[in-house]
């Protein structure tokens, strides 16, 4: 694919997911439209400064523009925005909603936000998330995971560290313990608010391996600046080895 010069000018981070190109294309089109409007309005402003200067028009006129060309330009801008919304933005959004992958064919993980950390919960080899209980929440158990539940015994939890395999859909069940946060993976072109009491699934398919930061894009308190996590997109073999190493830590006394 030939790179869009606007994308290069924007300096976007690496496009690391299958849907990143579609998001970037819409972003580039929006910026092209904004650039055209900026240049157009700047030229118009310079024109009226000269055309209606005081020396040429000592008596002020309050009629405004009388030509029809301004209406045609406004109509053209409206048409461009409708085309951008109807034929680019909405299709990209609907494809993400309608094509939600099956959990059986995906890596499924829970991410629970709190001031000021990202709690990550994997279901373990049995594929089932264990029971959680609010009364069990504490510094050593921020998710309140009930290890007496058979489904929870093999569950893996981490803080501020998310690992996922490349070229496989990832479904993140996102939620928050206290207030609104915003789960942001810039390289994956993922940005979703985490709202208390409203579990929200979000998905993406990584296509590039690497290690990057998880950002919170919603001001969430005095410690917002330090709510940084990390995520790694790994080869399947490396991801499986990481799961094994994390499971071995559970077996330690």
Write the topology of this structure:
Blueprint: H1 5-10, H2 20-51, H3 69-98, E1 107-114, E2 117-122, E3 156-159, E4 161-165, E5 170-176, E6 181-185, E7 190-194, E8 200-204, E9 210-216, E10 229-234, H4 236-251
Parallel strand pairs: 1-5, 4-10
Antiparallel strand pairs: 1-2, 2-3, 5-8, 6-7, 6-9, 9-10
Helix pairs in contact: 2-3
If strands are numbered along the chain, what order do they take across the biggest sheet? 3-2-1-5-8
Question: What summary fits the major beta sheet?
Answer: 5 strands, mixed
| CATH homologous superfamily (4th level) name of the largest domain | Cupredoxins -  blue copper proteins
The CATH architecture of the largest domain would be: Sandwich
* Rg calculated over all Cα atoms: 25 Å
Total helices: the number is: 4
């Amino acid at each position: 694919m030939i790179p869009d010069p606007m994308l290069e000018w924007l300096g976007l981070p690496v496009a690391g997911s299958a849907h990143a190109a579609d998001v970037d294309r819409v972003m580039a089109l929006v910026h092209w439209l904004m650039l055209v409007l900026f240049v157009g309005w700047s030229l118009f402003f310079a024109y009226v400064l000269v055309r209606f200067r005081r020396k040429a028009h000592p008596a002020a006129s309050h009629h405004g523009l009388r030509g029809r060309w301004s209406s045609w330009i406004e109509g053209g801008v409206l048409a461009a925005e409708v085309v951008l919304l109807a034929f680019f933005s909405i299709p990209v959004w609907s494809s993400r909603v309608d094509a939600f992958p099956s959990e059986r064919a995906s890596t499924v993980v829970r991410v629970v936000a709190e001031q000021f950390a990202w709690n990550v919960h994997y279901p373990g080899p049995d594929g089932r998330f264990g029971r959680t209980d609010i009364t069990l929440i504490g510094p050593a158990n921020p998710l309140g995971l009930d290890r007496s539940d058979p489904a929870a015994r093999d569950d893996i939890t981490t803080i501020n560290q998310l690992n996922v395999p490349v070229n496989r859909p990832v479904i993140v069940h996102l939620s928050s313990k206290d207030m609104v946060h915003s789960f942001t993976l810039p390289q994956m072109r993922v940005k979703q608010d985490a709202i208390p009491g409203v579990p929200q699934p979000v998905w993406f398919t990584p296509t590039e391996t690497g290690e990057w930061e998880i950002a919170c894009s919603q001001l969430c308190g005095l410690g917002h600046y330090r709510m940084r996590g990390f995520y790694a997109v790994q080869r399947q073999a490396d991801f499986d080895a990481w799961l094994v190493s994390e499971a071995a830590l559970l077996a330690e006394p």
